[in-house]
């Protein structure tokens, strides 16, 4: 299982939000590339990077910071946040990003995401962001009428690399991962699932290890606040 330390970008800084609320941001670092280097030094081989401003704007707003992270980090970097067109996705892939994460586009333009997944095998991830079981889009600001499971099923045969499942109500809150919903989704679809939202400590990592069809887990605030030692998480997941 892969551990993905998270670098969320707002105004060029590394932050964490509470429940996806841009007004409830805690700043952890002013140097995103330096943070990526620290994660690499701790043994991380993959990063999850989100352009939070881009998620609301619908286009990249922290491009320079993302490019600096890709250059500084020797492992794999997946990027999400405002990627809603083929041109945007392909620009990141051409820039050395390992995988692009698409959420709003997956709901609103599924044909686009399916086409990109077919053209770029193993490099497109569908974000399934759920608030009370319903898909949330546009930086999690809008809740749709589509369930997380229904959205996931739409991409069963599309060739996407993974589903990134986030319980929005737990994200950045240190409440613990929604293990039940994550495992249920992983058991419903054949696409590998990445767990996200609410990691509070090593017990969340332990609970996810060995679960069928769980490809990885994203963790942010728990690492930044010192509640989870990245080295311990990497060792447990290896």
Offer a quick outline of the entry:
The chain has 11 helices and 12 strands. The chain is an alpha/beta fold.
Write the SSE topology:
Layout: E1 2-10, E2 13-18, E3 21-29, H1 32-41, E4 46-51, H2 52-57, H3 63-72, E5 76-80, H4 86-94, E6 99-102, H5 104-108, H6 110-119, E7 124-131, E8 134-137, E9 142-147, H7 148-153, E10 162-167, H8 179-188, E11 193-196, H9 202-208, E12 214-219, H10 221-224, H11 230-237
Parallel strand pairs: 1-4, 1-12, 4-5, 5-6, 6-7, 7-10, 10-11, 11-12
Antiparallel strand pairs: 1-2, 2-3, 7-8, 8-9
Helix pairs in contact: 1-3
By CATH reckoning, the class would read: Alpha Beta
The CATH architecture term is: Alpha-Beta Barrel
Tell me roughly what share of residues is in helical segments: 25-40%
Number of domain units: 1
Residue-averaged pLDDT, rounded?
94
β-sheet strand percentage:
25-35%
| Overall morphology | globular
- Biggest β-sheet description: 8 strands, parallel, barrel
User: What is the fold-level CATH name, i.e. the topology?
Assistant: TIM Barrel
Unreliable residue runs: none
Q: Kindly name the structural category.
A: alpha/beta
Intertermini distance: 6 Å
